[in-house]
Amino acid sequence: MNRALQEIPAEKKMKTQPSVLMIGAECAPFAKTGGLADVIGTLTRELKTLEFDVRLMLPFHRIIKDRYRDRVRHLVSFSVDIGGRAQYVGVEQFDWEGIPVYFIDNEHYFGHAIDCGGDFEGVQYAYVSRAAIEALPLIGFSPRILHVNDWHTAMIPMLLKTQYDRLQQGRCRTVLSIHNLGYQGRFHFGFVSHLLGIESRYYHPDNIEYHGDANFLKGGIVYADKLVTVSPTYAREILTAYYGEGLEGILATRAEDLTGILNGIDTNAFNPAADPFIPYPYDASSLSAKQKNKEALIAELGLNLPFDAPIIGMVTRLTKQKGIDLVQRVFDEIIAAGAGFALIGTGDHAYEHFFRGAAHRTGGRAVGVTQFNDPLARRIYAGCDFFLMPSQFEPCGLSQMIALRYGTLPIVRATGGLRDTVFPYNEYTDEGNGFTFENYNAHDMLHTIRYALGVYENKERLDSLRLRAMGQDLSFQKSALAYAKLYADAAGK
Fold first, then answer.
1. Domain 288-470 bears CATH identifier 3.40.50.2000
2. Separation between Cα atoms, residue 12 and residue 7, nearest integer Å
3. pTM
4. What is the pLDDT of residues 41-65, one digit of tens each?
5. Where are the domains of the chain?
6. Residue 66, pLDDT above cutoff 90
7. Helix or strand run (H / E) with residue 118
8. 62: how many CB neighbours lie within 10 A of its CB?
9. Would 192 disulfide with which of 44, 214, 433, 471, CB 3.0-4.6 Å?
10. pLDDT of 335-362, one tens digit each?
11. How are beta strands 186-188 and 213-215 bridged, if at all?
12. Can you name the CATH fold of 3-264+477-491?
């Protein structure tokens, strides 16, 4: 029996564990635009390891259909009412490592790119919400828990309690994961009402109304049985005006049902000892190979640096949330402090332009790659000495965990999941696994970078830090055990 399962009290093992249907807009390895996909995929597999009857439901996006269409089994066809019109729903089933995956198929809604934006995205996920609920009696699965994720599927709890409360589906308990409060799914109420038949009495500040709109995420916050965010610190932060994105008031009313469970990473997928994308595999007992990866990275990127110079890496979306403004403001000072700099990321065009010009402005001491390349990202994790994440806010963050796994020391702003995973180095007690700063301020960040570069000069301290970083338990197993308890609580509510 799995060791992790043995740690769950007997009454919470498979015979009594609630069955779970995970529903989201995306999931790795099927479709991915961000960290949400990684979290759903990893959590689902960990729950399977804990012997849960867990299944997954996703839209049958074009990117998924092109790859899997010949490997799925058609399960059922039916229609749902969207805006007064009957819309086709096909459910295709796929076996993923013993986990049943249900793809919701409609070519009109999902026969194109994942991120459509605008009102059409509201139509897409209104359709998914309705289709997912009405599929339940037809697919031969009656889950006790529906675990919905972010705004895309957050209307499911509301629909269950207001339109399906007398039906079989209405007996499901719901858990809503808030991965990033900044994305809420706001649309004109009349538009949403027309799509989903939402009565006008729900257009109220205590319900789904939000500054004149209907707010999908708010609907989930109001109606889900349990709410969970992706780190304990973020769960506390979103109850404040600074982080609450206008929803701190309604969240405060649900504070007793709100918890934070720190994400983990797939430690098999992110393993420097077996990573096929880095030239020199290594672990804590062979740190000399990390230096070889650094030398290979310098050569690959054409950096004008000696092999013993420290390198700061970033693998990031180029958005304001990620603290790119801070990096821009003191970029010359970072280079002047003696560091090389390697970034890979896409996003805001102004930021992309800035980093594309970094090599020219720094005499080759910095390079910015503005098209995403996962193999290169792995080599940045492996080949850099430090990893910079100066986020304005960060619900959880996975990049800092990957960096720790690769022995690349994080330099982060102490917010959200960054505070929960990166602990400041104390040179007097030799504790900590990275470097942190509190205020969202470019010069506070620069001060911390300079301090980290000073530690770099002491090889004994540096290696001690790297070993401690690589020795952390960053797996999703601990998180999955916490979710097991959450599901039990939700099922018994």
1. yes
2. 10
3. 0.90
4. 999 999 999 999 999 999 999 999 9
5. 3-264+477-491, 288-470
6. yes
7. helix 118-135
8. 15
9. 214
10. 999 999 999 999 999 999 999 999 999 9
11. antiparallel
12. Rossmann fold (3.40.50)
